[in-house]
Amino acid sequence: MAGDSSVEAVDRSLKAREECIEMLKNHLARAQQRMKQQVDLHRVDKCFEVGDWVYVKLHPYRQHSVAIRLNQKFSPKFFGPFPIVTHIGDVAYRLQLPP
């Protein structure tokens, strides 16, 4: 435990170290809370029903199966709309995609 040393200088150093660590933990927790609040301002909880039409977001550099383009940088990110066939999980849906 900090502060249980027989040498006074070591004891003060250990107490100062523990105070500094506690202060850093508090500052880190406050910064994390502020970041979470800012991110939560932009988040929207979306729910879709079976039969709704949605767009699919694809990463142009990873998924090349939809359309082959000469310049991947300017290819569209969203494809669709496609109808929702079933609801699989909380944020997972099965879509009726073209063959």
Largest sheet: 3 strands, antiparallel
Annotation field: number of helices: 1
Order of helices and strands: HEEE
What is the SS-derived class?
alpha+beta
Q: Strands of the biggest beta sheet: in what spatial order? A: 1-2-3
Distance between the termini: 67 Å
> Which spans have pLDDT < 50 for at least 5 consecutive residues?
none
Shape field: elongated
Q: Could you tell me the strand content as a percent range? A: 15-25%
- Percent of residues in helices comes to 25-40%
Taking all residues together, what is the mean pLDDT? 86
Question: Over the alpha carbons, how many angstroms does the gyration radius reach?
Answer: 27 Å
Number of strands: 3
What order do the helices and strands come in, and which of them pair?
Elements: H1 8-42, E1 53-57, E2 78-87, E3 93-95
Antiparallel strand pairs: 1-2, 2-3
Explain what this protein looks like in three dimensions.
- This protein has 99 residues and is α+β, with helices and mostly antiparallel strands.
- The chain is 35% helix and 18% strand.
- It is built from one helix and three strands.
- A three-stranded antiparallel sheet has the order 1-2-3, with no helix packed on it.
- The longest helix is centred in the N-terminal third of the chain and has 35 residues, at 8-42.
- It is elongated, with a radius of gyration of 27 Å.
- The mean pLDDT is 86.
Summary tags:
about 100 residues; alpha+beta; three-stranded antiparallel β-sheet; about 20% strand; elongated
Could you provide a short overview of the structure?
The protein has 99 residues and is α+β, with helices and mostly antiparallel strands.
